[in-house]
Amino acid sequence: MLNFEDIEGRHSVRLSWNRFIQNLPPVSYKPATCNPPCRAVLNPYRQIDIRGKLRICPFCLTRNAFPPHYKDIPNTDLPPELLPKYTTVEHTLSRPAQAPPVFLFVVDTFGLITFGTMTQVHELGYVECSESYVFRGGKEYTQERIQDMLGLSTTTRSAPLAGQPMPQQASGAARFLLPVQQCEFQLTGILEALARDPWPVANDKCALRTGVAVNVAVGLLEVWQ
User: Fold this and answer.
1) Do the strands 118-122 and 132-136 form a parallel or antiparallel pair, or are they unpaired?
2) Which of 19, 50, 139, 166 has the fewest CB atoms within 10 Å around its CB?
């Protein structure tokens, strides 16, 4: 059984922000994919039948024939994309793709939500110290409840005294979403202090609560103006 954490440490299979992929084997042909509609790329986690020239997709369990350039491979000399030690490979195509991918990032405002067993919304607009709002990862929240807990609903939003401007740290969603030049110090401090999730998790359970984190993000963006 493959040790996924060790493999990620060597090859950055999840493309971690603080790791760079090194020593990639040269692969000068296009990747073999599963039949439509799956189209998963051939990888070390598949099952192969050398004699029958077949491979079984680990995602949809479909049996696929080997591509033409695999027809004579022996069991002792597999191509890099089938070896467990190469969970990341880079294919060099003989001709450029007809429609190359385009990545466009327009970054103006930052917010930060971290999640594990719990989901934390960090208040970047509070400069005195690091402050965050914590949501239970196993609980469902409505958008109204999320906004109420973050102090963003009309009933919980504090109002300034007559004739006084609203302080910056109490100005609605701007407590959590700020231009980078205004929150760079707080953002850097939070990222440098991130640690492993301290909450115990059973071996057969997953600690990540992605759904709650996304739900909280939507609730925050709904009141952003």
Assistant:
1) antiparallel
2) 139
